[in-house]
Amino acid sequence: MLNVPGYPQVWITGGSAGRRFMQVRDLWNDVVERLQTSIEASELACWVGAVQPCALEGDVLVLEVPARVHLERLETRYRVSIEAAASDARGRRTSVSLALGGACAKPSRAASPLPFPSRYTFERFVAGESNRLAFQSSRCVAERPGERFNPLFLWGGVGLGKTHLVTAIANAIAGRMPGKRIALVSAEVFTNELIRAIRSERTEGFRSHFRRVEVLIVDDIQFLAGKERTQEEFFHTFDSLHGNGKQLVLASDRPPSEIVNLEQRLRDRFECGLITEIGFPEYTLRKAIVARKAELLGLRLEDDVVEWIAERIVSSVRELEGALARLAIGHELRGGEIDRAFAASILEPILRAPEAPTVPRVQRLVADRFRVTLEELTGRRRSVALVPRQVAMYLSRKRTAATFSEIASGFGSRNHSTVMHAVKVVEERRALEPGFAAILESLEAKLARV
Ligand code: ADP
Ligand code: MG
Question: What is the biggest distance separating any 2 CA atoms in the chain, rounded to whole angstroms?
Answer without folding.
Answer: 90
